[in-house]
Amino acid sequence: LASKRGPAVFSHPLAGSARRSTDVVQDEAAAQSLLASDKDRREHALVVEAIMDLLAPYCSDLRAPPGPALVSTRTMWHLGTRIEGRLHRPDETSAAELAALLHPTPAVCGAPRDRAAEMIHALEGYDRGFYAGAVGWTNAFGDGAWYVSLRCAETCGDQARLYAGAGIVEGSDPAAEADETSGKFQAVLRALGVDEASV
Q: What's the per-residue H, E or C state across the chain?
């Protein structure tokens, strides 16, 4: 979400995702398809634009590459953009303030933010709890790092409630979004020793 070290501020949003494959050829095809996907690039651009717009008044210099790069985890491909800036007043701006400014991004809330948040509250049907919240740290100098709590689980005794989601934009296909969300569950399922086929 946001990190700060002295005058330097960073954000590395991930938006636009595809499930990885154990087959090398299929995995590479999934990565290249994601990179070429108009829908996923638009989804990603919404998030980058929102972060850039919010950070701009705080920064004397703010930059991002012209397009996203592929970022991989063990189970997913993502589109990612590293945003870097220099703060006007680093002694007056903390990492926690930057996190509060940026959160929630369109990736977990939508746009415009206030209207999307109202609709999510009315339509989603459950309390997200810590899911999609911000978690991190800020030290006495205002430096720190904050992340979005995604692909997580809430445990109680021998039960776990898993959370994951997908960004819905014009052009989203419900079946593809459901498969993407299922793929995102893999990181937590594997950590719990659960095979997806057995769920």
A: CEEEECCEEEECCEEEEEECCCCHHHHHHHHHHHHHCHHHHHHHHHHHHHHHHHHHHHEEEEECCCCCEEEECCCEEEEECCEEEEECCHHHCCHHHHHHHHCCCCCCCCCCHHHHHHHHHHHCCCCCCCCCCEEEEECCCCCEEEEECCCEEEEECCEEEEECCCCCCCCCCHHHHHHHHHHHHHHHHHHCCCCHHHC
Where the chain has pLDDT below 50, the residues are: none
pLDDT at res. 12: 98
The reported pLDDT for the residue numbered 198 is 64
The pLDDT of residue 69 is 98
CATH 3.60.120.10 fits 2-150, yes or no: yes
